[in-house]
Design goal:
This protein is an all-beta fold and about 150 residues long. The chain has a single domain (about 5-10, about 25-145), classed as Sandwich (Jelly Rolls). The protein is built from no helices and 12 strands. The strands form 2 sheets. Strands 1-2-11-4-5-6-7 form a 7-stranded antiparallel sheet, with no helix packed on it. The chain is globular, with a radius of gyration of 14 Å. Residues about 1-5 and about 5-15 have low confidence and may be disordered.
Length: about 150
């Protein structure tokens, strides 16, 4: 994703860590061809990490993608919420890609029919769009046991 697509004051961190939980606006919403890159380090004794793409910052906003890594279970679930109802979680992955105390790079690519999730340059999973008007998806939220070093 181009740097100017995220509207916040986090273009260049200069090695600083971003506060978690994090919420940032995606200028003009998502569209096919955009990519969000999150770099950071998983904390020691991590329980979970959550990344969501939502239609606004409200706690009741539709969620186009909730990506949740659960370290104890070794799962990376994907789901969406429309009008207050969650879709069934998708769990299939070739391996669990995150390790406590290790840096990571997470890329979420928005394609015409799906989100594609890549960790450390390895394809992990995809998730078909449930929110069909991608321009409504205008907020990135990150929470859990991690330190964020870069978002672009």
């Amino acid at each position: 994703m181009a740097d100017n697509m995220l509207c916040s004051d986090f273009k260049d961190f200069g090695g600083n860590i971003l506060a978690v939980p994090f919420s940032g606006t995606i200028k003009h919403g998502l569209k096919p061809g955009m990519k969000i890159t999150i770099m950071g380090i998983i904390r020691k004794n991590a329980d979970n990490v959550r990344v969501s793409l939502t239609c606004g910052s409200s706690s009741t906003a539709d969620v186009a993608l909730l990506l949740e890594a659960c370290f104890q279970a070794g799962t990376l679930s994907r789901s969406a919420m429309l009008a207050g109802s969650w879709s069934p979680s998708e769990l299939a992955i070739p391996y669990f890609p995150l390790t406590p105390e290790q840096p990571f790079r997470l890329d979420i690519s928005c394609e015409h029919q799906r989100f594609k999730v890549v960790v450390d340059r390895q394809f992990i999973c995809d998730f078909s769009h449930k929110v069909l008007s991608l321009s409504r998806v205008n907020t990135l939220k990150i929470s859990g046991n991690l330190n964020i070093t870069k978002i672009s």
